[in-house]
Amino acid sequence: MKDLLNQIETLTTSFMKDASSQLDKGNKAAGLRARRASLELEPLLKRFRKLSLAAAASGKRQD
Length: 63
Description:
Histone H1, about 60 residues
């Protein structure tokens, strides 16, 4: 679970940097990178949700 959270954090940071660059500077390439990062985040967030629900149901900590 920690590895998954690290992956989500890394991609989120990259997404925010590129999305801000597109918004502030009009950088089209950064917009493309931000859209790609958002597509990569989706399955990771779904996996997090699944693991989180399983942990809540079992009452155990996930590492």
